[in-house]
Amino acid sequence: GQVRYSVPEEAKAGTVVGRLAQDLGLEAGEAEARQLRLVSAGRRASVEVSGASGALVVSSRLDREELCGKSAPCVLRLEVLVERPLRVFHVELEVTDINDNAPIFPASQKNLSIAESSLPGSRFPLEGASDADIGSNAQLSYTLSPTEFFRLDDQGNNDKTASLALILMKPLDRETIPVHRLVVTASDGGRPSLTGMMELVITVLDANDNAPEFNHSVYKVEVLEGAELGTLIITISATDLDEGTNSDITYLFSRRVAAHVKEMFTIDENKGEIRLQRKLDYEEMDSYEITIEARDKGTPPLSGHCKVVLEVLDVNDNAPEVRVTSLSVPVAEDASVGTVVALLSVSDRDSGSNGRVSLAVWPPSPFGLVSTFAGSYSLVLREALDRERVSEYEVEVRAEDGGSPPLRAVRGVRVPVSDVNDNAPSFAQAVYTVLARENNAAGAELARLWARDPDEAGNGRVSYSVWEGGAGGAVSGVGWRPASSYVSVDAESGRLWALQPLDYEEVQVLQFEVRAVDAGEPPLCGNATVQLFVVDENDNAPALLPGAGGGAESVVGSSGEASPGAGSFSGALWAWASWGAPAGQVVAKIRAVDADSGYNAWLRYELWEPRGKGPFRVGLYSGEVSTARALEEADGPRQRLVIVVRDHGEPALSTTATLSVSLVEGAEAALAAAGSSSSSSRLLLPSASEGGSASASTTNVWLVVAICAVSSLFVLALVLYGASRW
């Protein structure tokens, strides 16, 4: 038959499970004799057969859960072997369960993440505890530590159908309680009941339910214009109560921000730093309103807004501007004081003291500034103008603002002065001394006259003319003749030229006036006196003067005729000399004149024939023919003398006189002299020879004085002419 025993688990070693030998029908003592024993079936049975009594006893710890797990019932099938004869018995040992295992959760701590946006009633499954026991010892019940947000839903006690869930009772707020720590307790149905606990850590997952918020709704900041590019304007900060990506904030300009503002500033989307990326100009815009948006990275993203009011502070970065709104030029030089020349407008784009402008004009005369109203000035004439002194003014209008340091601007105004005919032509000198050689060619230029008229254009255009009212010269044998018959002046160039050749012997000095008249309205004029000195040329040969009709003069008498020829005069003269006349006795006197003047008229006499030591000689400058020695009969009855009269000109001109001297007795010489005197109406007695010599000597002295005077006048004229030309 089948032997079956039951033993509770965890029975102590030595506990008798059953009387195996007896139950198998063995006699007392037979169990040991026949070697009653258990045959191992491959796993430890935790029971053994006692050899003496033949009882089945617990040999080691007996754990049902280890032997059978969750199987029920837990039956161990044992084989019992006896010998003599050999027999095998099958024994079943049922290990009954006791409540020796507490419920065990998979982990002592369970982390659970629940979105804070979860709705009440949401179910979150939990993995329940396990109990190694079976039956009622394994029937579990759960409890949750007190909380108003959650409860446990435990449906069924069967392990296969049990369902444990966490039910949300009210909405979660991560910002209020980010983590809920709860304890789930599992209790089995044993007596006494055993429990197991698990800590439930519920992390509330953030939902993007909070928009970013700035510290201030309006930020005010002041920045100097002209700040460097990249200057940090302000750092703004927003906070988001959410977490994770829901709290990651990006800063950006609002869509309402104008494009030019976005070009002016840049914002760091992560740090919220607003920096300058273009130059600020107070004059273009003195303030900016920038709406900033802080946007998180949640889904959907939420945004917060603030306003940055940036005030641009003015710096003195704009120089004054001076504009000429009206310009009346040129200005007549006779314009009255107070005449408005230009209208000026001045401005400065800066503000305050930086925009207050003071104005000055340089040079301070002859113009000045008159303020008409704010920012407008008139440039007026303060002094009389003189175009001939200053024909054009470069006026500087200097503007300076009140900034620190001040900025300046300069505007140049060119003011030309128009001419009026207020200046008469004026010659360089009041009197011009002109030297002109006689026999000049007709049309030859004698001098150039120049009159200066500082006026311009027609007012300064000068025309020249010879004024008939005060000009002329004395002409030998003709009387007074106007200067215009001798000279003329070119109307444009002032060139003085000769109308005809000048003849010194006809006119020596010509004095006239030249008038210079401008083309102004009315015309003005100026005068200059011209003294024209005719410089003598050696153009006249000496001419013999007939003495008592002959041209020779003797203490006795003379005869002769003058016959002109080729600019000279040749004469045949006669004279008588007595034998025995002593040396030095004047036989005759040759008289000649030269129409020229000065050296050209200074004559000298030379004995041309006979050459050598003749009986006669001629005074070099007196022209007296006298005996060189006492006359002798050997000298012959007649002596022929050829006398050359020569001037000192360059080249020298000359004439020749032939004197025939007859040698006679003293009585004949007296008769010849008497006859000669009666025929020629001029008779010189021998007793008058001394008086004649004295008269000739006096004449020579005066001739030398005249020559020296004319020479001095000529030298003075040359000096004056050279000085005037220089």
Structure overview:
InterPro entries: Cadherin-like_dom, Cadherin-like_sf, Cadherin_CS, Cadherin_N, Protocadherin/Cadherin-CA. Keywords: Calcium, Cell adhesion, Cell membrane, Glycoprotein, Membrane, Repeat, Signal, Transmembrane, Transmembrane helix. This is PCDA2 protein. It holds the Pfam family Cadherin. GO terms for molecular function: calcium ion binding. This protein is mostly beta strands. It folds into six domains: 2-96, Cadherins (Immunoglobulin-like); 109-205, Immunoglobulin-like (Sandwich); 213-313, Immunoglobulin-like; 321-416, Immunoglobulin-like (Sandwich); 426-535, Cadherins (Immunoglobulin-like); 538-548 and 570-673, Cadherins (Immunoglobulin-like, Sandwich). Helix content is 10%, strand content 43%. The protein contains six helices and 52 strands. The chain has a five-stranded mixed β-sheet with strand order 33-41-40-36-37. Strand 49 (616-618) and strand 50 (624-627) form a beta hairpin. Mean pLDDT is 83; it is low at 548-571 and 676-696.
Topology, pairings included?
Blueprint (H helix, E strand, L loop, with lengths): L2 E6 L7 E3 L1 H4 L6 H4 L3 E3 L7 E3 L6 E3 L5 H4 L6 E9 L4 E10 L12 E7 L7 E4 L14 E4 L5 E6 L7 E6 L10 E9 L7 E11 L7 E2 L3 E7 L7 E4 L2 E2 L9 E5 L5 H6 E3 L5 E4 L10 E10 L6 E11 L7 E7 L3 E2 L7 E8 L9 E6 L4 E7 L2 E6 L10 E10 L6 E11 L7 E2 L3 E7 L7 E4 L2 E2 L9 E14 L3 E3 L5 E3 L5 E4 L10 E10 L6 E11 L7 E2 L7 E2 L4 E8 L2 E11 L7 E5 L1 E2 L9 E7 L6 E3 L5 E4 L10 E10 L6 E11 L1 H15 L8 H37 L1
Parallel strand pairs: 1-7, 8-14, 16-23, 25-31, 33-41, 45-52
Antiparallel strand pairs: 2-5, 3-6, 4-5, 6-7, 9-12, 10-13, 11-12, 13-14, 15-18, 17-21, 19-22, 20-21, 22-23, 24-26, 26-29, 27-30, 28-29, 30-31, 32-35, 34-39, 36-37, 36-40, 38-39, 40-41, 42-47, 43-46, 44-45, 46-50, 48-51, 49-50, 51-52
